[in-house]
Design brief:
globular; 296 residues; mainly beta; single chain; eight-stranded antiparallel sheet
Length: 296
């Protein structure tokens, strides 16, 4: 499988349906499960819109910000056991593939769509069925054990997710201060997540720029505790884990301290970290999930 991915120049498109079943729609192994992609549109760029303000006493408009709407993916699929490459399939095989394919789609639960290219790797998006599939083939698919459907799915989050990238700093030399590198290999800003262990009180840099470092201080940790912080402004969380307590919310203990700057697109940022009262085993993990406006 790995060699096929690296050798094939075509873009690979894979769907993991709501039942966890894998469907290779395009690229290497296309149609292996009996369904292949014929055409598609709306899959490439996240729809964007500019928000502006206009008034009677100004020329033109004033830019406020840009926003992204949901992404609508319209595609044509061919359902046929013959797409598996084993010759003409039986009618029984056709109905089995046909049933499994549509069982895997839901209007309430999203599927995962993955795109793979040799130069960009994997990018993923979650989308759910937004209208009834429309048959564009003959009246009775039993005539040739083949059916063609026009389908439409909507991704509420229009951005594609990459694999998570992590970097670790360990206080192995006892300096109680170091640098962890957070990499954002995508065209959208990213907010890092931090995981750190006790004992001690951590300070983590907010990458605002400027000559002076802005450090955000965490609650005091004791031996055996682990703190996980998500800095994203839409879902800021701080959870404390230990042998007896799992997932305790401690964001209030930050007393209003928070990160106000994200990682710029296509950047690699050195984050300064400090530990007070730590040990040689004190370590911090910085995790970043890059997000792109296109699948490749």
């Amino acid at each position: 499988m790995t060699r096929q991915l690296l050798d094939a120049p075509d873009t690979k498109i894979v769907v993991w349906d709501v039942n966890g079943r894998v469907w290779h729609l395009s690229g290497a192994n296309a149609g292996r499960e009996g369904v292949r992609l014929s055409s598609q549109r709306g899959f490439m760029f996240a729809p964007t819109q500019l928000l502006v303000s206009e008034g009677a006493r100004q020329d033109g408009a004033t830019f406020l910000r840009s926003v992204r709407a949901k992404k609508e993916w319209d595609f044509l699929v061919v359902v046929s056991p013959s797409a598996q490459g084993r010759g003409a399939g039986s009618l029984r095989d056709f109905h089995a593939v046909h049933d499994a394919w549509f069982r895997g789609w839901s209007t309430d639960t999203p599927c995962t769509i993955g795109y793979f290219t040799r130069h960009q790797g994997w990018r993923f998006q979650r989308a759910q069925l937004d209208s009834a599939p429309e048959s564009v083939s003959e009246v009775d698919p039993a005539r040739n054990a083949l059916a063609v459907y026009r389908m439409s799915a909507t991704a509420m989050d229009p951005l594609e997710q990459h694999f998570e990238e992590t970097s670790v700093w360990t206080n192995s030399v006892g300096l109680n201060e170091g640098v962890v590198r957070a990499r954002n290999a995508a065209d959208q800003p990213a907010w890092p997540r931090y995981t750190m262990n006790g004992p001690g009180r951590w300070q983590i840099m907010d990458p605002t720029g400027g000559d002076e470092l802005r450090m955000v201080q965490t609650p005091l940790l004791v031996e055996g505790q682990t703190l996980r912080i998500d800095t994203h402004p839409r879902h800021r969380t701080a959870r404390l884990y230990s042998g007896s307590v799992a997932g305790q919310h401690v964001w209030g203990q930050l007393a209003g301290r928070r990160w106000i700057a994200s990682l710029p697109p296509w950047s690699s940022t050195e984050i300064t970290v400090r530990i007070e009262g730590g040990t040689l085993q004190s370590s911090l993990i910085a995790a970043v999930t890059p997000r792109s406006s296109r699948p490749f």
